Amino acid sequence: MTPIENVIEKFENRSTHVAVVGLGYVGLPLCIAFAKAGYQVTGIDIDERKVDSINRGESYIEDIPSSILQQYTRQSMGISTQTVGSTTNHPPSTTLHLSSRNQFSATTDYSILAECDAVSICVPTPLSKTGDPNIAYVVSAAEQTAKYLHNDMVVVLESTTYPGTTTEILLPHLEQNNQGFQVGQDFFLAFSPERIDPGRADWTVETMPKVMGGVTGGCLEVATAFYGAAVGQIIPVSSPDAAEMVKLFENTFRAVNIGLANELLLMCDKLGLDAWEVLDAAATKPFGFMKFTPGPGLGGHCIPVDPHYLSWKLRSLQYTARFIELASEINTNMPAYWVQRVQDALNEDTKSVKGSQILILGVAYKKDVSDMRESPSLDILHLLQTKGAMVQYHDPYVPSFSYDGQEFVSVPDLIAALEEADCVVIATDHSSYDWQTIVNQSNLLIDTRHVDVRG
Ligand code: SAJ
């Protein structure tokens, strides 16, 4: 067998020890998927609390219940009933067995990589305060991985990043610490974007098509064998750069179309039309249309961030990604648009924003989640406070939060808060809200989500 065939065989017969760097909403589910596939798995994270929690069998990721985690992190008492060949004279036998799987554990110590056949890097790639890509976590993981890189090791980057990161940043780090190591021969490197959508049950790590781009053909083959044991479908592309671009385009597609939906609202305002009526009617087109909806702005850890990785890269090549810039301008301005709507509505009641009691419903960035990252509700809150309003909030998923040096607590009595408020702003359309009651109890209602309670 060729060296590559040897490496592939190790993954195929599961005699491999793999590592995952970064144990967040991407990394931890990936660890479980690798463990389910039969690999020995070690999770690596700089956060000792995450590491200790995992080793205690306590999950901190909603999509991974502790009961699932414990199937792989602890010795487990198993009961199996032998039914094959059982007859009336030989009833099924029940045996009690103790399987010490301990298949998955976590550590803060990167040196474990010296024993690992493969590593997936799933660290955050945020934006810096200046709005530029911050790949410091990727660089740090690359430097640590390079220390323990060894023959036949497979490295796959999953973190969302601009095209060129794998080949221009990660690869040189791996090579510079290992003189003479040749990618595609002595070690293997690929990029495979994560597509984890927290809370989604229909598409999981195991069922989601997984795009994979190798630095060489051999890298693609080996990375495909590595992941192929855990995920249903690998989508090969010609390079890591192409794979990096696939992810950014997927999420840029959403950001631009959300921007268009928000501009539809602005245009309909000018035309005196109901944007939601127009949208719902357009959505009856059975082909060639995909419904996006206006809202309070763009929240979350992906959509507001990923397109800026792409536009930043293009700027470095003297190209302006105009759709990305325009969508960002429109989406970023939506909180101010809705605050103006509040101001105009209070004005109709001969009230000013200043001194008014305003209740914001929902601070999570989208419905039925507790995540507040980049939530436009916070921008709306800040703008209203700046205009002198007294702002409270209610969110069934967020009991309290700190913002701008202030502590906020979800109002305990929603009905009373609705009745007391001069204006109620629906910012997040959590499914658990009783919208008819909210409409009935509100003196004035600004609905950024069109919860559609109208008969
Ligand atoms: N939003 C709108 N109008 C829309 C859709 C979304 O205003 O029509 C707002 C949301 O309220 C939210 C933001 O945009 O504030 C982002 O919403 P999202 O539905 O894109 O949700 P995310 O940020 O959780 O995106 C994730 C992404 N998943 C991955 O990157 C793996 C995205 O690619 C998924 O398409 C999306 O989940 C999904 O479909 O749930």
Short synopsis of the structure:
With 455 residues, the chain is of the alpha/beta class.
Structural description of this entry:
This protein has helices at residues 3-12, 27-37, 48-55, 66-73, 136-147, 165-176, 217-228, 240-271, 275-282, 306-315, 322-348, 376-386, 414-420, 435-441; strands at 17-21, 40-44, 76-82, 93-99, 104-107, 118-121, 153-157, 187-191, 210-214, 234-237, 357-361, 390-394, 400-403, 406-409, 423-426, 445-447. The radius of gyration is 26 Å and the shape is elongated. Helices cover 38% and strands 17% of the residues. The strands form 4 sheets. An 8-stranded mixed β-sheet has the order 5-2-1-6-7-8-9-10, sandwiched between helices. It has a 4-stranded parallel β-sheet with strand order 12-11-15-16, with helices on both faces. Strands 3-4 form a two-stranded antiparallel ribbon. The N and C termini lie far apart (70 Å). It is α/β, with parallel strands linked by helices. β1 (17-21), α2 (27-37) and β2 form a beta-alpha-beta unit. Bound molecules: ligand SAJ.
Annotation keywords:
single chain; 455 residues; 4-stranded parallel sheet; 38% helix; elongated; binds ligand SAJ
Helix and strand layout, with pairings?
Elements: H1 3-12, E1 17-21, H2 27-37, E2 40-44, H3 48-55, H4 66-73, E3 76-82, E4 93-99, E5 104-107, E6 118-121, H5 136-147, E7 153-157, H6 165-176, E8 187-191, E9 210-214, H7 217-228, E10 234-237, H8 240-271, H9 275-282, H10 306-315, H11 322-348, E11 357-361, H12 376-386, E12 390-394, E13 400-403, E14 406-409, H13 414-420, E15 423-426, H14 435-441, E16 445-447
Parallel strand pairs: 1-2, 1-6, 2-5, 6-7, 7-8, 9-10, 11-12, 11-15, 15-16
Antiparallel strand pairs: 3-4, 8-9, 13-14
Residues 195-197, 250-251, 254, 258, 261, 292-293, 295, 298-300, 302-303, 365-366 line the site of ligand SAJ.
